[in-house]
């Protein structure tokens, strides 16, 4: 069996006469994907080394040498000159081994530390940053919806249940529904960051260390503090090295975000179809067919819808990964990274492209207006008209149902029934019943908070517009 070259510095080198077999090295390595954590790994090492010096475990010159070595490694990685070695398994060992090659002080860096608490640290640092960036992307998408809503402030469309026309709503009201969902997604991200933002360093392999480490000092250096500036450190070493709740929680938040985007995308796909024709998505965000020359397909929206599948899959993969693991660290946990990375990448790129696409949507106002003019959309208003005249709602509902059937039978629109025809169904109908079908006054009648009434929608738009400083495009 072919043996790989014995690595220069590996933590286990004393116990083993030889390195692992080449196929084992290939099977167990994570450097091909966890090198993405190099910056977090080095930042963590800098803080750890500063702490070791503070508590007297390394000297000031040794700290200086470690910092200098790490700095030169940063430059090499940035310049693409760093040689990542598969036989050194992961990002932690690669960097530590190279540091030790550059300075003997490097051999002291791993004092009181294990890759188990180190990888938990790196992931937390990385995810903390990513959640902030993702929040920024979500805000941009919200702003794009608000800006389209402002531009279409007068546009009415039918609102749907069961994908059947229900009642008229402002397009802005429909768009602001997405903004509400995204707002909750943002809140969930911020709440999940509170639990990400706890420092596991000092937990060692599973049982801490006999050395006088200063956990709170490291935590503070790395920004693991609460709103009042108090250091946040994990409270149980066994939990700290085997806990991936924070990653799973993030993936759950991301799955919900992806689900929201998927539903939004589905609306856009429908609206862009010839059947609806409410919107036109700019050429740059559609694609043609290789066979049918007339096609303009909403592929971006479709892929945004499709991406949710892998994001949901990643969440399930992580839950499954953890569910049978005994305490504490098990190598299975290495499988967390690609799922987590893929989730972050998928949602970030999706949110970003959606924002760009929304900015490139034009609304076919005439088509929307014609659809919203359907008098059947105001059948509920007609029932409420009867309620205002003292008719019990159940009876009013029945009467309007009968009126709809009569109109259908007479092959005319609901608003064209004569007063006599209406009164043949319910005596409380009077000449003012016709006014119910005026769309503008119908929208003005909706005054409840959260309703699609003209004043309420303007109020909501102003609230969101102020928040995102959005002007109509
Ligand atoms: N590459 C490992 C991971 O991703 C780092 C921790 C390894 N720890 C260990 N005891 N083998 O989880």
Record the SSE blueprint.
Blueprint: H1 22-28, H2 31-34, H3 38-54, H4 60-78, H5 91-102, H6 115-151, E1 156-161, E2 164-170, H7 171-196, H8 215-221, H9 237-242, H10 245-272, E3 279-281, H11 299-323, H12 336-358, E4 361-363, H13 365-372, H14 379-388, H15 393-409, H16 419-423, H17 439-444, H18 454-468
Antiparallel strand pairs: 1-2, 3-4
Helix pairs in contact: 3-4, 3-6, 3-8, 4-5, 6-7, 6-12, 6-18, 7-10, 10-11, 10-12, 11-12, 14-15
The chain binds arginine (ARG).
Mind explaining what this structure looks like?
The protein is mainly α and 473 residues long. The protein folds into three domains: 22-111, Orthogonal Bundle (Fumarase C, Chain B, domain 1); 116-369, Fumarase/aspartase (Central domain) (Fumarase C, Chain A, domain 2); 374-468, Fumarase/aspartase (C-terminal domain) (Ribonucleotide Reductase Protein R1, domain 1), CATH 1.10.40. Helices cover 58% and strands 4% of the residues. The chain contains 18 helices and four strands. The strands form two sheets. It has a two-stranded antiparallel ribbon. The chain has a two-stranded antiparallel ribbon with strand order 3-4. 40% of the residues are buried. The site of arginine (ARG) has 10 residues, from α6. Arginine (ARG) binds at residues 30, 34, 90, 115-116, 119, 329, 331, 333-334.
